[in-house]
Specification:
By secondary structure, the chain is an alpha/beta fold. It has 19 helices and eleven strands.
Length: 355
């Protein structure tokens, strides 16, 4: 028996039937908690409460809702850590809940909306089928792939772009100081969306120029991001398809939270195009979670649920170090280093060189 097995057995022995039941019921109720937070967003609960302490009846009136159901919602949000109840029917917003305010610069409202969106969740109803067949449930449910679906729905596409921008904020703040960008002259962000990550890099390294590469839909909000950070003169926007090519002219390619969207064959294609576009001294910097070879429940995070999300909605996967090494090898690249991005877990910096 391994050490992990011994620890697991000891923990199981300490738990009683009630603890096991609470664990399983808590997991099952997780989807209800997500919809509770989604309802709070749609009713603008956090915005209506603001920085003050407000009574449930006041929030209900401003939201155009009935008092008793609103009170029940506010108490449920309190149980989830989004609000705090100071006296009967009197609530304020917690620091975590404040990030549901879409007007805040550190807001996660779009991220929450996107991952409680029916377009994301319907495919999860067919997870067992995807497990049996390996097929992408989203394609079966909607008759098209995820990104083609977004292309037909501009508002949902804009929400997705905003969600990805919010998801990258922490990494955008940490990455510029966690890697030696000073060795390079031009960095290309492959699949860089609205430019939040690349803007963080360019602002921290004034000698660098940038290339932001994505589809036309992916770049839709990029001009506003670059203008806001006064970086338009140092960064060019290039629309294209990384399954066909990537632009030349950069000695560093950054690829964050892109490869996990795709199958191994597709990842090899993307990386092969990067290899062809890079100069001999160039580098590829992949920024993604790196799964351990064995799951440790004590340190496991949401990456394993992300892995299943990739399966049902996109056909991609999260990867181990060995998985990354293999797709890079097939693309004519070699792993140079794998380093945790400690200020933005669970991301790692995977530096890749031409083989």
């Amino acid at each position: 028996m391994t050490t992990t097995d011994t620890v697991a057995a000891a923990e199981a022995a300490c738990r009683g039937p009630q603890e096991d039941e609470r664990l399983l019921v808590g997991l099952v109720f997780g989807s209800m908690a997500a919809q509770t937070v989604r309802a709070a967003l749609r009713l603008r609960v956090v915005e209506l409460i603001g920085d003050a302490e407000r009574r449930a009846a006041e929030v209900a009136a401003d939201a155009g809702a009935a008092v008793q159901p609103m009170t029940r919602l506010l108490r449920a949000l309190t149980s989830l850590g989004v609000l705090r109840e100071h006296a009967p029917d009197s609530f304020s917003v917690t620091p975590a809940g404040a990030r549901l305010d879409p007007t805040r610069p550190d807001s996660l409202a779009s991220l929450v909306r996107m991952f409680t969106e029916p377009a994301i969740l319907r495919a999860w109803e067919h997870l067992d089928t995807s497990i049996r067949t390996g097929d992408i449930a989203f394609d079966t449910v909607y008759g098209t792939d995820f990104f083609s679906h977004l292309k037909e729905l501009p508002e949902l596409s804009a929400e997705f772009n905003a969600a990805m921008s919010q998801a990258v904020q922490e990494a955008a703040a940490a990455l510029p100081y966690a890697y030696d960008f000073g060795r390079f002259t031009t960095v290309a962000d492959i699949g860089g969306g609205d430019g939040t990550l690349l803007s963080g890099i360019l602002r921290a390294h004034p000698a660098l120029n940038g290339i932001l590469y994505d589809t036309e839909e992916g770049l839709a909000q990029a001009p506003a991001t670059l203008e806001r950070h006064e970086l338009a003169h140092r960064c060019s926007l290039v629309a294209g398809d990384f399954f066909r090519s990537v632009p030349g002219g950069a000695d560093l390619h950054v690829i964050k939270s892109v490869l996990h969207d795709w199958s191994d064959e597709q990842v090899v294609t993307i990386l092969t195009h990067c290899r062809r576009a890079l100069p001999p001294e160039g580098r590829v910097l992949i920024i993604e979670p790196v799964l351990p070879e064995v799951v440790d429940p004590a340190t496991a995070d949401l990456t394993y649920l992300s892995d299943l999300n990739m399966l049902v909605n996109l056909g991609g996967r999260e990867r181990t170090r060995a998985d990354f090494a293999e797709v890079c090898r097939r693309a004519g690249l070699a792993l140079a280093s794998v380093t945790p991005l400690e200020q933005a877990p669970p991301y790692h910096l995977i530096e890749v060189t031409p083989a």
